[in-house]
Amino acid sequence: MAMAAAFLILLLMAPAVYGAEHVVGGSRGWTQSVNYDKWAAGETFTVGDTLLFGYGSSHSVDQVSQDDYNNCATGNALTPYSGGQNTISLTKTGPMYFLCPSFGHCGGGMKLAINVVAASGTPSGTQPSTTSPPTESGTPTTTPPSTQTPTTTSPPPPSGVAGSFGNMNHLIIGISLVLAPIIALMC
């Protein structure tokens, strides 16, 4: 019985460690008909999340440097992807850049820049500003954040149940993982 209880506790904790899966471009996928700046602005990319690129045979995905992204320079991929569907794990904080290396596609807007934040929602390398006790004049002084603060910002992480589990799909998967063994033990 103790083993079953330990297993149940482990299953209850499992959904919290799953990151969100971001389907790049939403229902249209990795295609020239999506405004990726607008799509990315509606997402929060956190360490542990994944990007899912789905695309047709006329496309592929290259992870590139910021310079190559800004200039739509192809041929210098940090990591090239192909095959029609790729899942890319977000394992560290900071900016990431992607583009389609097919001729003219990047120039036509088929490129994506994201900023990955730490699980707490604070980008790595940043320090919040601090307020010291009041001075003789009676007003507190504020110390600005560290100069290491990135120039890019991202929206705050989602709150509530969906934010805690990445998205509602992960919540459903988590509940299924918990209920299946319980039902199996009852039978």
From TrEMBL:
Keywords: Glycoprotein, Metal-binding, Signal. GO terms for cellular component: plasma membrane. It holds the Pfam family Cu_bind_like. GO terms for molecular function: electron transfer activity; metal ion binding. Residues 122-162 are annotated as: Disordered. SUPFAM superfamilies: Cupredoxins. This is Phytocyanin domain-containing protein. InterPro entries: Cupredoxin, Phytocyanin-like, Phytocyanin_dom. Residues 122-152 have a biased composition (Low complexity). Residues 1-19 form the signal peptide. Residues 20-118 form the Phytocyanin domain.
